[in-house]
Amino acid sequence: MTNSTIKPKIGQCCDCPPGTPDQPITAGRCNSFHYKLHRSKVNAEKNKDKEKAPRTPIPKFSVRRKKENREYLIKRLQFLAQPGNQRCFIEGCNNRADTVEHTAGRWGKNYLDTSTWKPCCNFHNLELEKNSDLSEKYQLSKISGKKKIIKR
Ligand SMILES: [Zn+2]
Ligand SMILES: [Zn+2]
């Protein structure tokens, strides 16, 4: 790759008649006319392709996500059925745990990694979303995977 597209270049346009003096060119065409013409043709081609393309092909991502969701529902049931996971993990709360709290976030491998999960009651699940003090205390840092550093 050259950096000819970055620096303005002087030369011969491949679409101008032979004998035309050197002029500022981009990608082998004169800036003043043929390059713009060429771009508009290219863009018209691209738009045609867009119209032809099927509206919304199913991305591979969502297929994988569907599979993960199914796996998650099963793992979640198994997790909440364990004797040690019957009560909310928040100190002083003795509510029945109905949900899973993803202490390290829900993306990537954490989504299905039960070592980052905690049993949680519905109330505290919502509370952890809203209350940043509480979430600082109980959720792992989403960047380091370690306990959050409490800033004062
Ligand atoms: Zn030209
Ligand atoms: Zn609770």
Automatic annotation (TrEMBL):
<feature type="region of interest" description="Disordered">
    <location>
        <begin position="41"/>
        <end position="60"/>
    </location>
</feature>
<feature type="compositionally biased region" description="Basic and acidic residues">
    <location>
        <begin position="42"/>
        <end position="54"/>
    </location>
</feature>
<protein>
    <submittedName>
        <fullName>Uncharacterized protein</fullName>
    </submittedName>
</protein>
